[in-house]
Design goal:
- With 317 residues, this protein is an alpha/beta fold.
- The protein has two domains: 116 residues, ornithine cyclodeaminase, domain 1, CATH 3.30.1780; 191 residues, NAD(P)-binding Rossmann-like Domain (Rossmann fold).
- Helix content is 34%, strand content 24%.
- The chain has an eight-stranded parallel β-sheet, sandwiched between helices.
- Strand 7, helix 4 and strand 8 form a beta-alpha-beta unit.
- Helix 3 packs across helix 4 and helix 3 crosses helix 11.
- The longest helix has 20 residues.
- It is globular.
- It starts with a strand and ends with a helix.
Amino acid sequence: MSSNYINYESAIDLLSWEGSVAALRAGHLRPKAEIADIFLGPQTATLLNRAAFIDGLGYGVKAVTVMGENPAKGLPTVQGAMMVYEPDMGGLSAIIDSRLVTEIKTASDSTLGARLLARPDSKRLLIVGAGVVAESLIHAYTAIFPRLEHVLVWARRPEQAQALLKRMTGIKAKLSVAEDLATTAASADIISSATMARTPVLKGEWITPGTHVDLIGAFKADMREADNALISSGSLFVDSRDTTLHHIGELMIPLAAGIINESDIKGDFYDLIASGTTARKSDDEITVFKNGGGAHLDLMIADYISGAVARKSSPRT
């Protein structure tokens, strides 16, 4: 493999959640990204290609397979790599393990959204799903929200949540398996959902005033995690209008049904970060955030990763 290949093990310890969130914030102060996605293959075995260009930052293409049946075989769901090209001459500057880019990007996307939308004094976090993403969410949320006192994980198979929590180390907050999703959701300050659901797992009737809901899992047109009541009852935000509104079932399905209109999307990261203020209007407001995880976010995080590796390779004297 080329010397510009960055694997997970060589870089993960060089990164921080504060640093990655700052990289996303800084990236949204640059000119707006150009983005294009390609999806190929059946529902449970998708080849996903995501490409972006950001003026001054360069070009990036992430190509991964998303194999829904792999976990049952003891294999990772997502596999692939990201290629990064420098902005001026177009040279290939790095090839980065997709696991590293996606793990840092996904949790940073959600925690940046929560920092802009959730109550700063949030103490109870519910994570729905106990896969690979859930592990990074626990680390990221407890780093970005140090006041969190209790993190609960719910999974359709409780033993999966139990196994996840047994692997967790260095977390100051209390960690528990959530037995009943509806009851736990009603008492949470932040709910972060990362499942492969194609029908809603979260209901609006469960959500209490002041809750922030972070929706991660749905990435295709037939996927969603929140029901119509939840999508229509809260203040709705997205990381990017361009990668969510007409691409992901979480919004496409209620839009097509007339449950919501495009004008109900109150803002995306470009809007929120440019304003320089938090978007939450009151402690009782329910905020709903759709993490679409577009290619421009991959590029911002890839730049952060490459910079961290370069600084290690060329320390100041």
